[in-house]
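ok trying this again, last paste got cut off
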Amino acid sequence: MRRGFYYYISIMIRLTNVSKTVMSGSEKLTILHAVDMFIPRGQFVAVVGPSGSGKSTMLSLVAGLDAPTTGDIFLDGEYINRLSEDELARLRGAKVGFIFQSFHLIPSLTAYENILVPMEIMKLQQARARAQKLLDEIGLHERGHHYPSQLSGGEQQRVAIARAFSNDPAILLADEPTGNLDSKNGMHVFELLVKLNRERGTTLLLVTHEHALAEQADRIISLNEGRIVEDLQKEN
């Protein structure tokens, strides 16, 4: 099936009049200004822009890790800013995977256990078999018993990706996932992300400062000073 805009059948992410304002000393600082955006199911969207443009703030709002000052955020049928903390936690556990720049693996758990934990929390069936399958998919079949400190940066990020996919999320959010890696490992991690996105049909929202990576997305959204200044939809 072609991946062009007109072939998507439903909206997975929608932001309506979303802004974020914080206090900076005695002054109000607006990080995002009344953003309107929608992302169809299965689309791979790259968000680019200079430091301080609001990219990571937007991703945190979409993930429900922060609350907007104004507006509504819609994820796969739910307005997440209207949910309780418990409801939001359940939605994230069931539908959202998040990959951070700095991995955020649990140091006292092995690679295999880091992947397994979210599935055990969600009480998913055959969690152990799925954890092993994900290890195989990221090319770390022989490294599952190693702790994060025994893995390279690229290997740790691959474990973080497998963990994010462990609940088979409808939405994957990635915040500079290659930022702490050298170019070779960064490309390996990026290719793995795209492969999993394409094969599983997961909606992928990727924040990156690397335009060469962004160019491989279905769509590029450019932010500057908290505003969307360009929304480039590729035609396939």
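PB: full thing came through this time. Residues 41-64+96-233 form a domain with the Rossmann fold fold (CATH 3.40.50.300).
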